Amino acid sequence: MDNKNKALTPKLVKKLWVAFVLLILLMGASYIFITGYYANKYNQATTQQVNANIANHVIQEKFTNASPFLEDGSVNKPLFGDLMHDMMAVNRSIEVYLLNDIGEILYSVVLDHSDNAPSKTVALGPVKEFIKTEGASFVKGEDPRNPGTKKIFSAAPYEVEGRKGYVYIILAGKDFQNISNSLLSSYFKQLGIGATLLTMLFSVVIGLISIWFLTKNLRLITGTVRRFQEGDLDARIENPEDSDIEIFANSFNEMADTIVGNMDKMKSVDLLRRELIANVSHDLRTPLAILKGYIETLQIKKDNLSEVEKEEYLQITHDNVDKLSNLINQLFEYSKLEAEQVTPIKEPFSITELSHDLVAKFKVIAQKKEITLQIENPNSNCMVFADVSLVERALQNLIENAIKYTNPHGLVTLTLNKIDDNVEINITDTGTGIPVNEQPFIFDRYKQVNKNTKKQGYGLGLAIVKKIMDLHDTTITVLSKPKEGSSFIFNLPAYQV
To answer: Does CATH number 3.30.450 belong to domain 52-170?
Structure first.
């Protein structure tokens, strides 16, 4: 059987079938038992009410014409012999007992001819209840021939020659019980066979309908899952709130959305990775080509070049080595941030002192381009709680970027402001600015902008800054207008002394 056929008969459906059949069989057995029990009870109650006055009839017919006791006080056995003969001619299952007023058995023909040890007394509670209700209620009394067994009876009180007692008649004697048990066994056998066949028939019919109905949503979900598995990424369970298993339907839809989202993200990451490799390869190729060209020139024309030319070529070579080194360091740094291998070690430090150090470091580079680099609010000491090395790297990249895109005689300003529980850091330049349509993408790795100028691409510097901000659970904002300059603003939590 192939996988699709197996899917049509999942284990759950088989278990439902087994559980359903067992339930129907249990219900059938319970029905047979309950039906037999109440049928037997109904038969006994009917028999008792039909024969409720038989004890009174015995007393009126027999005890009026002859006393049940002889002159010596003993029981008139011939009278009871005739009585039993008459009774058995009508109903062989009847057993007659003569009781005194405390329930002792004075005489019974069946006990005289029985090999069983007779019960010497009969409990009078049921007898009195029967007489009180005049046989209207269903009451069972003791069977003297089978102690511990309850049977239907008829009873009536008598008072003869100063002696009181009861005539107690078992209506379903031993013969009746044997015949009843035999018939009941046959009835149960026939009922059991019939009920079993009907149960099996109804199990099949109702089972097919019920299981089809119960598993309708499950089959729908299974089909949707199979479609998704086979490549239909748009497959979703429609109207999950109407499903009998809403939680599972919603979970599948959410899982499918997550998988598709992750796949799209992986495709996007792969595309960006290819773009990154292409851009890095281009940036690596350029300084390498320059290095190779000038080194070959030095090798070929070393005897014909003046000292000034040699010094110029060596300086160009040195600058391109620095570019290569910086680019490789950025790649290494960004790859660690991208792989989440960097964990910030946060501590309190003075962002003001760090800013002064960085401005002093970059002032020489700025002066070469005739750019003014300054700090605003230099005397206000601002303390922050962050990773000092990561914040230093972010500020360094932003200052480098500002100097790179600022024209001679321009201005780069680093401003620190304490606002509530944060310190706002703002790096502003008067450079070329960023086109509005390109501003949302400048933090993407190697996003190319300003393609009409010689300064192409922001490289990995701003992408590294964005990753550092993410590690500090903060954001960086850019405000820029073409030919008017740019501002990069971010906040760090202030350290409360």
So the answer is: yes
Where do the structural domains in the chain lie, given as residue ranges?
52-170, 237-341, 344-493
CATH number assigned to the domain covering 237-341: 1.10.287.130
Environment class of 97 (CB within 10 Å of its CB; exposed 0-12, middle 13-18, buried 19+): buried
Residue 303 CA to residue 336 CA, distance in Å, equals: 46
pTM greater than 0.70 (yes/no)? no
Query: Which residues in 127-236 belong to E strands, given as ranges?
Result: 140-142, 150-160, 163-170
Q: Decide: helix, strand or coil at residue 33.
A: helix
For residue 151, report the phi and psi dihedrals to the nearest 5 degrees.
-140, 160
| Tokens matching residue 468 | 């550092």
CB 464: neighbour CB atoms within 10 A? 23
Greater pLDDT, 471 or 276: 471
Tokens, residue 326? 């910086």
- Measured distance CA(88)–CA(466) in Å, rounded: 111
Pairing of strands 347-350, 372-376: unpaired
Name residues whose C-beta falls within 8 Å of residue 22's C-beta, 6 or more positions apart in sequence. Answer: none
Q: In terms of CATH architecture, what is 344-493?
A: 2-Layer Sandwich (3.30)
What's the rounded Cα separation, in Å, for the pair 128 and 142? 13
Range 224-245 burial, b when 16+ CB lie within 10 A, else e: bbeebeeeeeebbbeebeebee
Residue count of the chain: 497
Secondary structure (3-state) at 422: strand
**DSSP state letter for 494:** B
Residue 170: CB atoms within 10 Å: 26
pLDDT digits (tens, 9 = 90+) for 105-115: 888 877 654 44
Instruction: Classify the C-alpha dihedral 323-327-333-334 as positive or negative.
Output: positive
Residue 252 in contact with residue 237, Cβ under 8 Å? Answer: yes
List b or e across 470-497, with b for residues whose CB sees 16 or more CB atoms inside 10 angstroms.
Answer: ebbeeebeeebeeeebbbbbbbbbbbee
Over residues 321-343, the pLDDT tens digits come to 887 887 777 777 777 777 677 78
CA 211 to chain centre: 23
Distance CA 398, CA 478 (A): 11
Report the number of secondary-structure helices (H) and strands (E) in the chain.
13, 12
Kindly state the DSSP code that residue 457 receives in the 8-state scheme. -
| Residues 263, 265, 266: CA angle, nearest 5 degrees | 65
| Amino acid (1-letter code) at residue 94 | I
CB 492 within 8 A of CB 425: yes
Alpha-carbon dihedral 22, 26, 31, 34, rounded to 10 degrees: 180
